[in-house]
Amino acid sequence: MIEILPETRNNMLAVRISDELTVDDFDQYRNLLRDLMQRYKEAHLFYEMVNVDWVQPVAAIENGMFDVIHGLDYGRVAMVGEKKWQEWAAKLISPVKKKGVRYFDLAEREQAMKWVQEGE
Fold first, then answer.
1. Which is nearest to 17 in space by CA: 30, 76, 44, 91?
2. How do residues 14-23 score in pLDDT, each as one tens digit?
3. Is residue 78 within 8 Å of 111, Cβ to Cβ?
4. Which tens digit of pLDDT belongs to each residue from 90-109?
5. Which Pfam families match (predicted)?
């Protein structure tokens, strides 16, 4: 399931993924992000994962392809999670994004949000 967080504004998309990431969830996320990328020079992303048990393989592949195609349109990207595989996923996708991906543990959520909003 995908939830658009209230911190979403201007050129920043903030989402929370929970339970299972489906193709429909990814389509919604991708359309919002693509819209930001068309309106702004770069789009910042806050991506939080809580209790994510499964990512549908097609959604994962589509997400990877979107990242490769639009990697230079990303600004700061924070990935917040609670499992080791999520940290590995952040490291795996980091090279295709212009400024990489910074991973934060769920306990560091506020720090991650501040970094995405304000930078260093």
1. 30
2. 999 888 788 8
3. no
4. 776 776 677 888 899 999 99
5. SpoIIAA-like
Q: Domain boundaries in the chain?
A: 2-118
Please, what is the Cα angle at 42 between 38 and 47, to 5 degrees? Answer: 100
Would you state the torsion angle of the CA atoms of residues 52, 79, 68, 95, taken in this order, to the nearest 10 degrees?
-130
CA distance linking residue 74 with residue 58, whole number of Å:
22
pTM above threshold 0.90: no
pLDDT-derived band at 8 (thresholds 50, 70, 90) equals very high
pLDDT over 80 (residue 24)? yes
Among residues 32, 34, 45, 30, which one has the least CA distance to residue 103?
45
Whether 15 and 6 have beta carbons less than 8 Å apart is answered as no
Identify residue 66 by its one-letter amino acid code. F
